[in-house]
Amino acid sequence: MSQRPFKVLGIQQIAIGGPSKERLRTLWVDMFGLEITGNFVSERENVDEDICAMGTGPFKVEVDLMQPLDPDRKPAVHTTPLNHVGLWIDDLPGAVQWLSSKGVRFAPGGIRKGAAGFDICFVHPKGNDELPIGGEGVLIELVQAPPEVISAFSRLALSKPGAFDV
Question: Which residues have a Cβ under 8 Å from the Cβ of 70 and sit 6 or more positions away?
């Protein structure tokens, strides 16, 4: 296998789905103390989500609390409680090109702006005959890391050699 032309820097987000954001907020906001930093509504993606944050600076992790706009429509963001995990990527276009060439299946939509304003795309939870590699049941969001996140992870890696050699 040729050398990977990108790095997975760290976790950018987790997305948790349920029938009601109110119930999700009780645990994540009221009990755990996460701050709601935004809201995202998309008819196309059938989602109403609160964007929350834990941590600070370049190591901040986004926690999306999602409910469907219509529980009878797809995508059904509430049927899998852990809806998806988001990974910071240092070179998203390079990652998508390389992963596609290796047989990774991406969900429709390509690279686009995500709820938090970063470029994103999704690895499909299931492979198929043409593109056999998927998330094995997990939807994986690849998120273009901004320069300050790339720099922070680079500094951390330099201070701990081998820590990010994945």
Answer: 46
